[in-house]
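Contributing new records

If you add data, match the layout below exactly. Sequence lines come first and carry their own label; structure lines follow with theirs. Keep one chain per record. Anything else will be rejected by the validation script.
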Amino acid sequence: MLAATATQTQTTVLSIVVSLAVLAYLMYRQLQVRPVRTTFALPVVLIIVGVASLSGVGPNGLGSAGRVAILVALLAGDAAGLGAVRALTVRLWRNGDLVLRQGTWVTMALWIVGVAIHALVGALADISDSTLLLYMGITLGAQQLVVQARARQPDRLPQRGAAGASWQS
């Protein structure tokens, strides 16, 4: 019994460390000036890894229908909703034929708020931190969908130099 608890604690710590490392990477990348992506490789990988980790959610797996409903609400409302809102805070501009993007400090604040909401509701519903990678994949995918939709209207975007120098925060 004690060995099982130690293994479970190690798994939880590893999950938290990996999730925080992924979150730090995502937030760092958000502030970089980059072309708007047309692929969903990173969100898909995060979703796949997140789904694979769901077997450890809660004390007995996903458990009750109530836990599943809370998880679905978290992912649909918090992840997808805040991802779409966060996309509106991303600066977009044209540099020739290329559409560039850069997150703002508001984008960063919304990342933190979203993860905090996810963690708080997850703790209250006894849904472990193993859902955080799934959350990040869904929220990043939702953000990317909205950014791509905005980027498809290049005539509505300002023309700037590659660094977007007039927007540096």
